[in-house]
Write a structure and sequence with these properties.
The protein has 112 residues and is mostly helical. It is 56% helix and 11% strand.
């Protein structure tokens, strides 16, 4: 364990999709299909897995309305909102450096 606590945070939101899920649910209650649309490229299996893990970690609450067609919503908990607030500086950094980072990934900028 490191003294900075980053390892603890990454244990909860590590992986490709969890930070993005947290970001979107912090901005309002979301349904499963809505999250799929907001996260192009995520598989249904991976989204289900990450949502379950985030519920188990106490970041999200799942509400099943027991309706047909199925209606399930995901909401942020106070614990999750506190972690979500810590992502704001990271989001701002990403916005400021988007061109530089994405430009570095273009094929013409990679070594052969």
């Amino acid at each position: 364990m490191s003294d900075c606590g980053l390892d603890v945070a990454l244990a909860v939101i590590g992986g490709k999709w969890k930070m993005l899920i947290l970001y979107h649910v912090c901005h309002g209650t979301r349904r499963f299909g809505e999250l799929r649309r907001l996260l192009p490229g995520v598989s249904e299996k991976m989204l289900i897995q990450d949502l379950r893990q985030m519920q188990e970690s106490g970041l999200l609450v799942r509400k099943d309305y027991k309706e047909l067609p199925p209606k399930v919503e995901y909401s942020i908990t106070p614990f999750g909102r506190a972690l979500g607030q810590s992502l704001l500086p990271l989001c701002a950094w990403g916005v400021r450096n988007r061109k530089r980072v994405l430009g570095a990934k273009s094929p013409r900028n990679t070594a052969a």
